[in-house]
Every structure is written in structure tokens, then in C-alpha cells.
Amino acid sequence: MDEVEVVVAHSERATLRVGDMFLKVDGDQARIDAEVEAMALAPVPTPKILWHKPHVLAIAALPGATLGRLGGPSTGSPTAWAAAGAAIRKLHDAPLPPRPGQAGRNIVALTAELDAECEQLVTSNVLPANLVTRNRQVAEAALRPWPPAFTHGDLQIAHIFVDDNDEVTGIIDWSEAGQGDALHDLATFTLGHEQHLTDVITGYGTDVDVDLDVIHAWWSLRSLLVIRWLSEHGFDPFAPGCEVDVLKSRM
């Protein structure tokens, strides 16, 4: 009999694995609806949807493996990282989906959220003021108008799978997908693994301008926004190689 593996669980959602099937349980039905819609529109490999009912989405496991994890060693050849970059570019070049995504939040609202979060990080003694101030300065470069692209919105390193032939077999977790900033996806994928950014950009293509300052800014911005949430939901952003170390690398 297959055992039930809890992949991730917190108050908002949980993901369970039973054999070759993943069950995603989400308190927000809109996120499941957005994920199903995005997977249908995305021009890249995605998991097979087995079924979905209110608050539950069942998908098949993907072949291959990820290129590492945040806070852990990276794996895969430069060719595999470039293949991931090419898949990301294919997504960004696709026709725009109908809804805005996580990577396409209103700049004014995002700036206000960032400033409020920075204040909380300092006043709650979560991080030193100089670390927060420096990274808030770096993050400023991301707060600019961008041409909309079809973005994944939460393209963590654990969300792209590659096989032994260095080919992308699928991309998972599409609940934050929609119109957004393409550089947000590139930054999220390389967060904590910036040594592979050149490989990813090689696969993405040099025919477009990839502003490295903006990618660095998204590394800082994303880390600043999620540290308290992660700590409150059972994750450790202070672990080696994770979000706090990302912020320290900008000092």
C-alpha cells in the first residue's frame, strides 16, 4: 500500500503525495481555478491533471528531478540550467493569459507592501536595520514599469523538473501565474543559486535585454517580503543559503 507523504502543509494549503499522484488542497478555490487555467494555456510541459473538485487538485508526478533546492546544493549541468532558461523564455513569449499574476502586482501597492514589511522586520527585531535598509535600496530597481509577459509567478528552483538528457519534463505549481514581469521569474528561479544565472540567461536567449540590476533587485525584494511569512508558517529563512543569506550577499 502506498504511504501518504506530506510534501508541504500550512494554514493556507497542503500538498500530499500518494504513489505517483499529488493532491493539492487549498482553502482558496480561486487559486486552484487559476492553476488549472494556467496549465491549460502554458506552452511548456506541465503535470497531467487527473481530476479536480472543490478545493482539491489531483495531478500526476513528473519524471526527472529538480536542479536543487533553496538552501541546498545545486545539481545539473550548465546545459540543464540553460534548458530551464529556454523553457522560461518559451513561456514568456506566449500569448498573455487573461488575468494578472503574482509577478504583475501594481507597483504602487507593491511598494507600499515592501515598505510596511521592511518596517516590521526592523521594529520586530527580525533583521538588523542596516541589512533591511541596504536591501530596500537594491529592491528599488524592480519597482518600475515592465512589459507584461506570461509569467509563472512562483518559479522556485523546486518547480522545474529536468531529465537525465537535460530536457525539461515539466513545471509545477501554477497558482500564481498570469501577466507579470518576466525578470521576476528569472530572479525567483535563480534565488540562492546566482552562480547559475549566466547558464539560465544563455538558454533564455541573448536577443533580449536581461537587466541584471533588476534581477538582483527581485532577489532582495522577494526575500524581504517573505521572511516573516516563512518564519510564521514553519519554514526557516535563516537556514544557510536561504533568504537571509540572500540579503546578506547584497551587502
Task: Report on the architecture of this protein.
This protein has 251 residues and is an alpha+beta fold. It has a single domain, classed as Alpha-Beta Complex (Aminoglycoside 3'-phosphotransferase, Chain: A, domain 2). It is built from 8 helices and 9 strands. The chain has a 5-stranded antiparallel beta sheet. Helix 2 packs across helix 6, helix 3 crosses helix 7 and helix 5 packs across helix 7. It is globular. The model has no long low-confidence stretch (mean pLDDT 94).
CA-based shape: globular
Which structural class do you get from the secondary structure elements?
alpha+beta
Q: Mind telling me the CATH class? A: Alpha Beta
Uncertain spans: none
Briefly, what is this?
This protein is an alpha+beta fold and 251 residues long. The chain has a single domain (63-248), classed as Aminoglycoside 3'-phosphotransferase, Chain: A, domain 2 (Alpha-Beta Complex), CATH 3.90.1200.10. It is built from 8 helices and 9 strands.
